[in-house]
Every structure is written in C-alpha cells, then in structure tokens.
Write a sequence for this structure.
C-alpha cells in the first residue's frame, strides 16, 4: 500500500493543497454528516442570513445517512451516499469555507470549479462498505434537524478513516484517470 | 395474514446483514483476476465488510433500501385474516425496526420520511401449488437512480440494444457502487420491461440462462462492460460488472422496449417459502 497522509480537521489551504488525486488519506477528528435534505436547509440558512448548524470554515462534510445504532454501538452502518445530488449546494458551502467532502461518485463542473477556486478537495470512501466504515467512528451526536431521521446532521468523531483523493485543487480527477488507465477497446 | 407479516418481518434483517453466497463468491473471484491494485484492494474491503456485517450484526450498507417484495402465491392457497398488502407493510415496519435498519422512504415532494420504510413495492404472481414464496429485495437508491427504460425504434435492433445498455453503465460510472449486476429486459411493454428487469436480479450469479439467445447476449455484454475501465468503486479496473441477466420476450410490432435495472455489489435478497 502507498503512503497514507494523515489529516485532522479543521483543514486549511495548505492541508488540502498538498493532496493529489489518487493519494490515500487517513482522516481523524471531528467531521459532520449531511445529505440531501440537510444540504437544502443549510444553504437556505446561509442565503437568508442564518447560521449553519456547524462552523463551515475548514470543515469536512461526510455525505452519509447512517443506519440506526444497535444497542451498545455509537452508530450503525455508515458508508457514503452518491455525491452528485449535493452538487447543487456544494459550491455555496465551499465558498463559505468547507474544505473537504466525503462521498462516492462523480461531481459536476461547477463543484470542481469551486474546489479549484476556493481550495477544497473531494474524497471518496468505498460505497457499500458501511459496516467496515462504522469501525472508524468513535462518537456520533445529532446536532441539527433531528426530524430528518437518517438525514439529520451529526457530529462524528472519527479515527483513521481510510479515504482516497478523487478531486484535488489543481483539477486532478481520479475517476477519469482510473477509468482511462483500464479502459480497453 | 399474521404468518405473512411474521415471514416478511423475518426477512428484513437477514436480507440486509447477510450478503448472498453467490455475490460474495463472485467478488472473491474478481479479486483474483483484477489488474488494478486499487481495484483489488476495494474488492478485498468489500469482502471484509460482508464478514463484519455478518459477525457484528450490522447492515452491509447503511442504505437498507426500499423493500421490494415478490409474492408467488400458490393457486391452492386461501389467505385469510385481512389484506395481503397491509400484512406485508406491517412486516416491513416490524422487521426494519427490530433489526435496526435505516428507514429510507419519504414523500416525493416534501421529502418527509414515512418513518417506517413503508410502503413496500409488492409484485404478486399467481403460481400453481399450495405454497407461498416471499422474496424480499432491499433495493438501494444509488443504483436504482442509474437505471433506465428506453422505448427504442425497432430499426436499432440487437446492436442498438447492446449499445444502450453499455451507455447506461458507462454514464453511471462510479455512482451505482460498482462492480454492478445488471438486470436487462428486452421486449414486452414499458411497464412490463421494468418489472422484469428487476425480477431477473434474483437469478444466481453463474447460472446459465435457459434461453440461448439471452445467454449469448449476456456473455457479449459481460465482455464489453468489463472493458469500460470503471472498475471497483469506479476507481479504475477490470471489474465493472459481476453479472448480466437478460430476459427477452416479444413486443408490439411498433416497439422495442428495453429496461436496464442497475444493482450494486451489495446485491441483497432473502426468501422464505410458507
């Protein structure tokens, strides 16, 4: 396995600028969850002068709606959801200081432009490996929108969450590079 | 009906926690053949994930799906004590709560969660015999979103059908959690094709299609789809598709319906016969 880069949020320009598409990352510390409905509400709050449910400056957001925690556990299965559904909202969050997004699947041109312009990265977790990912989560607490159930915003404390850089601040895109390397005609 | 409810409830947990053996075996076989180091690592992690889910009673994936329930009702069976659909939904409500599964069903516009993963989608079929077969498929949203129905012009023919199927998976890329399983239905009508494309996902990986025409198409598609380069988790590689299941039937002289139902590598289903 190649060297893994350790990251601990909050992240700054320097932290994310040294990441290249394809790099392996081990993320530890505090991150926040949010998916479709939470993104809609966060962006609405920002646009109407309200406060987001967590400080966006340097933040890492994980696109996940975990399954309920069985007794004795802090969380259920917790793998990434497909990211393109958050594309409509991500540039606004990036403009407000968001530094990294964790998900799976392609991002659109606007999100990639925002990542280059404001220095932010997109990290992939393995989709469908929710039981494995749960092992990296040490604490989980709902901090906003509890009525959204699995879509509520949670604060997570994670340890050595294994991720891979898909989109870096220079426009590198692992999904494109990976596909091209193995495409046969 | 109480027996139906109990049976459905009993399928919910196991279906989300226990990856079917054929899927697990095909992931392991792909891991041996994959050229991409990252791809091999992803496949290894998926096998590890399946083992953890089983050992620690956790769902394989946090997306415990929308419950699709197939009922094969024996014609000699007389169900008593209420409404079959209500019994199935009561079973889903009970099973998803008891097994700590995620409730992933909401109103299409307000997006308000129904809170109990109902309503289920039920496909009822009358079959000979005195048994009731219930199959539960927790269908994930990420792969379902990449599924497509096409009403093609007959002139595009077999070649055009193949092209649309390949385009569908190529465009999906990393989104539907590859390596995927494809359910393909050609012919029938708009609605019938979609229903069949999902039902064929219940077939066992590695099983031979009794229709030689469909079997040939499956083999050709497998070769072409695994040349796309998408690979495990879409990070590049040879393993984009674990299986293609094709169902072909006649259609209207004006039509060429095609449905492609994309399934993720967490291809879960469980059944019980009463």
């Amino acid at each position: 396995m190649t060297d893994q880069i350790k990251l601990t949020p909050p992240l700054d320009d320097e932290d994310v600028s040294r990441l290249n598409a394809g790099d392996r990352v081990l993320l530890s510390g505090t991150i926040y969850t949010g998916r479709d409905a939470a993104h809609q509400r966060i962006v609405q709050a920002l646009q109407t002068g309200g406060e987001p449910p967590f400080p966006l400056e340097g933040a890492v957001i994980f696109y996940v709606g975990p399954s309920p925690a069985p007794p004795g556990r802090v969380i259920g299965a917790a793998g990434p959801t497909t990211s393109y559904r958050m594309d409509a909202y991500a540039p606004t969050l990036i403009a407000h200081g968001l530094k990294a997004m964790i998900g799976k699947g392609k991002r659109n041109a606007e999100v990639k432009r925002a990542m280059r312009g404001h220095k932010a990265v997109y990290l992939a977790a393995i989709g469908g490996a929710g039981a494995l990912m749960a092992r990296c989560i040490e604490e989980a607490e709902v901090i906003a929108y509890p009525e959204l159930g699995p879509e509520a915003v949670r604060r997570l404390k994670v340890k050595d969450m294994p991720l891979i850089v898909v989109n870096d601040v220079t426009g590198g895109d692992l999904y494109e590079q990976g596909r091209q390397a193995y495409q046969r005609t | 009906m109480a027996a139906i409810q109990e049976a459905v409830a009993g399928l919910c947990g196991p279906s989300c926690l226990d990856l079917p053996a054929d899927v697990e075996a095909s992931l392991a076989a792909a891991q041996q053949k994959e050229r991409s180091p990252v791809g091999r690592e992803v496949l290894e992690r998926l096998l590890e994930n399946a083992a953890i889910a089983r050992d620690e009673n956790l769902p394989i994936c946090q997306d415990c799906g929308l419950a699709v329930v197939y009922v094969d009702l024996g014609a000699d069976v007389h169900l008593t004590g209420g409404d079959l659909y209500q019994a199935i939904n009561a079973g889903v409500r009970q099973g998803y709560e008891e097994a700590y599964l995620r409730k992933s069903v909401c109103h299409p516009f307000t997006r308000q969660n129904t809170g109990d993963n109902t309503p289920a989608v039920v496909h009822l079929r009358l079959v000979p015999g005195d048994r009731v077969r219930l199959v539960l498929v927790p269908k994930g949203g990420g792969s379902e979103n990449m599924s497509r129905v096409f009403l093609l012009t007959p002139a595009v023919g077999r070649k055009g059908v193949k092209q649309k199927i390949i385009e569908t998976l190529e465009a999906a890329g990393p989104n539907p959690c590859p390596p995927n399983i494809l359910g393909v239905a050609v012919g029938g009508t708009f609605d019938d094709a979609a229903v069949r494309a999902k039902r064929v996902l219940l077939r066992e990986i590695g099983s031979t299609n009794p229709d030689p025409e469909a079997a040939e198409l499956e083999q050709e598609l497998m070769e072409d789809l695994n040349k796309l380069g998408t690979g495990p988790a879409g990070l590049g590689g040879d393993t984009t598709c674990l299986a293609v299941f094709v169902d072909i039937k006649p259609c209207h002289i004006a039509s060429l319906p095609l449905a492609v139902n994309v399934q993720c590598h967490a291809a879960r289903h469980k059944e019980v016969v009463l």
Remarks:
- Chain B has two domains: 2-14+60-139, 142-267.
- Helices of chain B lie at 2-17, 21-33, 37-56, 84-98, 141-144, 157-172, 190-199, 212-225.
- Strands of chain B lie at 66-74, 121-127, 132-139, 148-152, 180-188, 241-251, 256-263, 270-273.
- Residues 2-14+60-139 of chain B form one domain.
